[in-house]
């Protein structure tokens, strides 16, 4: 799914400071509307508004956040442009509840513009630090890792995502068929190093065409004992379901 990420509604003296929980957003940080100009939607109970936000803004699949994508706007994203109070109330649902995917670590993109790593930087900059700090779930899909530029782009991407303090779930989907044999050991060691840098990580999924020894070999190298590590090799149920979701919602 391609999502057009809304910008902050343009108003004077507008600050989008907001804590990371919806109840506080609803009851403390929503700017009071001017008398006589209350948007009818805001008369609804807070619980009902939250239910509407969740129905409109939570995608059924991974949301493609790559900067180069020509976005196809969805109806839910436009909701955040309605007014600043709705923006304050709903943005946490958009960024906390969805899984954002950044990929395209292909050779021509890595050589021309940094590939997925630059897409990550551009996107995080565009949505702003306060929205970026709400992100909980990130996925990446890596293809054509037969070249050093692609590997460098991917590992730079991991460093960018690691800087987002609230990321709790990371999914790494790998197409190992094109890995250069001489890069295999170095790539595995660097991957482990990058994954160990995620301080707040609670769930890590590694899937795709992965080495057969990883499920037994890698867990002992992940230093954070609180991380739930899951493997989804090609052909597994999780892998098949993800492909089906991508095809259905692409």
Automatic annotation (TrEMBL):
It comes from Trematosphaeria pertusa. Residues 7-19 have a biased composition (Polar residues). This is DUF7730 domain-containing protein. PANTHER family: F-BOX DOMAIN-CONTAINING PROTEIN. Residues 74-105 form the DUF7730 domain. Residues 1-29 are annotated as: Disordered. Pfam families: DUF7730.
């Amino acid at each position: 799914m391609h999502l057009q990420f809304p910008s902050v509604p343009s108003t004077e003296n507008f600050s989008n400071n907001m804590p990371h929980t919806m109840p506080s957003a609803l009851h403390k940080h929503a700017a009071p509307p001017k008398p006589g100009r209350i948007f009818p939607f805001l008369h609804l109970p807070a619980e009902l508004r939250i239910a509407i936000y969740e129905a409109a803004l939570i995608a059924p699949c991974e949301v493609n956040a790559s900067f180069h994508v020509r976005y196809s706007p969805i109806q839910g994203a436009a909701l955040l442009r309605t007014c600043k109070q709705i923006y304050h109330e709903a943005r946490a649902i958009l960024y906390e509840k969805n899984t954002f995917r950044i990929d395209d670590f292909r050779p021509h993109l890595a050589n021309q513009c940094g590939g997925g790593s630059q897409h990550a930087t551009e996107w995080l900059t565009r949505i702003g630090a306060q929205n970026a700090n709400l992100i909980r779930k990130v996925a990446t899909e890596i293809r054509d890792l037969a070249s050093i530029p692609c590997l460098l782009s991917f590992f730079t991407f991991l460093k960018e995502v690691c800087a987002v303090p609230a990321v709790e779930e990371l999914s790494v989907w790998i197409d190992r068929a094109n890995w250069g044999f001489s890069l295999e050991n170095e790539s595995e060691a660097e991957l482990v190093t990058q994954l160990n840098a995620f301080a707040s990580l609670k769930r890590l999924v590694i899937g795709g065409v992965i080495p057969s020894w990883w499920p037994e070999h890698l867990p002992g190298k992940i230093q954070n004992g609180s991380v739930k590590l899951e493997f989804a090799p090609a052909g597994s149920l999780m892998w098949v379901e993800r492909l089906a979701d991508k095809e259905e919602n692409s």
